[in-house]
């Protein structure tokens, strides 16, 4: 179409008509006189628009997929990191089974003594060069842990809480030289005080210097006033040696502790004390004595040798 005066005049006229129709349509609202024409146009051009949309949608979806693929890749990377961290925390299957076994033993001890415990994992140990026998556990004030709470595991007494942070706590082990706990002999009322000696057996001073004690006797915690820092009835250890009584006011024992302070992983902090003293019910069953085989020797008498006189007569 050539650019002539008539064509420009026609274009202006069409634009004016278009604006007029738009104005009439807007003012008419739902009763617009051009509504019928619009529906007719939709009927004619609708299939064409749908076809164009169908052709364009795959392109749009592809663009969207490309845009979102980066987000999915980032999320996958995050999940892989989280899974790796989780696996590292749980460790191998053997380690997980070992921890579950330790937790089961600890819960069993807590059930026997009616102790309410908060399970914890050992995450650090104290500096050996400082002669300090301590561990750090992964529970703290936010978990209800307070200073001077008893700590135990599936074997027996571990120590007491000395320092508490928001999410961690420090435990002084029973093997530390600064550690002291009141003890009671099994099936009796002989009281004493056990002190740590590092990697050596606990040293126990019985209050009764004439108490009858022998190797293999067992001790439990006597308990403290208001059950802090120690609740009663927690297994302490087995007597391994008794010093000869010298007529003193006290008697010295050496006790092998039940807990192995160099192999601590899962422990429990006593947050709820028992309603009554469990006495000796938390102690493990006594080991059955191994029968010692006896050997019976039977001597069969041999035939007696003939006398010399008889031999000479036969000759």
Defining traits:
alpha+beta; 12 strands; 315 residues; 4 helices; Thrombin, subunit H
Give a written overview of the molecule.
The protein has 4 helices and 12 strands, in the order αααββββββββββββα. The chain has 315 residues and is of the alpha+beta class. The strands form 2 sheets. A 6-stranded antiparallel β-barrel has the order 1-2-5-4-3-12. Strand 1 and strand 2 form a beta hairpin. The longest helix has 56 residues, at 35-90. The N and C termini lie far apart (166 Å). The model is unreliable at 41-57 (pLDDT under 50).
In short, what is this structure?
With 315 residues, the chain is an alpha+beta fold. The chain is 34% helix and 24% strand. The longest helix has 56 residues.
């Amino acid at each position: 179409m050539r650019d002539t005066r008539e064509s420009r005049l026609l274009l202006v006229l069409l634009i004016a008509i278009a604006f007029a129709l738009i104005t009439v349509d807007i003012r008419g609202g739902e009763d617009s006189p051009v509504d019928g024409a619009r529906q007719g146009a939709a009927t004619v051009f609708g299939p064409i628009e749908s076809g164009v949309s169908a052709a364009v949608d795959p392109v749009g979806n592809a663009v969207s997929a490309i845009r979102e693929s980066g987000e999915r890749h980032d999320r996958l990377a995050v999940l892989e990191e989280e899974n790796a961290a989780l696996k590292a925390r749980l460790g191998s299957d053997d380690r997980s089974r070992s921890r579950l076994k330790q937790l089961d033993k600890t819960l069993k001890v807590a059930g026997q003594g009616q102790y309410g415990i908060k399970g914890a994992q050992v995450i650090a140990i104290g500096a050996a060069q400082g002669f300090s026998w301590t561990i750090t556990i992964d529970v703290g004030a936010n978990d209800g842990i307070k200073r001077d709470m008893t700590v135990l595991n599936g074997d027996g007494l571990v120590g007491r809480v000395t320092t508490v942070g928001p999410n961690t706590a420090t435990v002084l082990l029973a093997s530390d030289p600064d550690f002291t706990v009141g003890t009671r002999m099994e099936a009796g009322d002989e009281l004493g005080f056990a002190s740590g000696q590092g990697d050596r057996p606990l040293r126990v001073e019985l209050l009764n210097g004439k108490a009858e004690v022998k190797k293999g006797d067992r001790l439990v915690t006597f308990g403290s006033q208001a059950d802090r820092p120690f609740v009663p009835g927690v297994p302490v250890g087995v007597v391994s040696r008794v010093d000869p009584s010298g007529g003193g006011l006290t008697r010295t024992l050496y006790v092998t502790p039940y807990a192995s302070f160099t192999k601590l992983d899962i422990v429990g902090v006593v947050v709820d004390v028992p309603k009554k003293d469990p006495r000796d019910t938390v102690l493990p069953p006594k080991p059955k004595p191994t029968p010692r085989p006896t050997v019976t020797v039977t001597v069969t008498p041999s035939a007696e040798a003939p006398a010399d006189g008889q031999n000479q007569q036969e000759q």
